[in-house]
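2024-03-11 09:14:02 DEBUG pipeline.ingest accepted 1 chain
2024-03-11 09:14:02 DEBUG pipeline.ingest length=118
2024-03-11 09:14:03 DEBUG pipeline.predict start
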Amino acid sequence: MNPNSRTIITDKDQILKIIKKRRNKRRFRVFHTKGIKCVQCGVEINKILFWTDPYGNQSVDFIHEFPDKSFVFMTVDHIYPLSLGGVRSIENEQPMCSKCNNLKGNQPQLLVEKDLTN
């Protein structure tokens, strides 16, 4: 990719194919194994953005774009936070949108589910 280049993928079949193809990378592996929906609110990846910054560094963002064109990034959350002794493993990781992940903070998932439903 050229510096400042962007590639946007919005076709769901193509998104799933890319995630499967790159499942050796941690974030892709979580979405491939555990799905592309936020475990808390249910929004799902409907856009992947591949981009290169001016210094040639390549990056990828997983996004859910709403009909009004607002969006949230899709992230990989640690069910039991690293800051509380959780580990980096597929068993301790789950797909979550950035909004729900920010609300969850560094709380273990079971406590957050209770708090978010009140």
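2024-03-11 09:14:41 DEBUG pipeline.report Residues 6-113 form one domain.
2024-03-11 09:14:41 DEBUG pipeline.predict end
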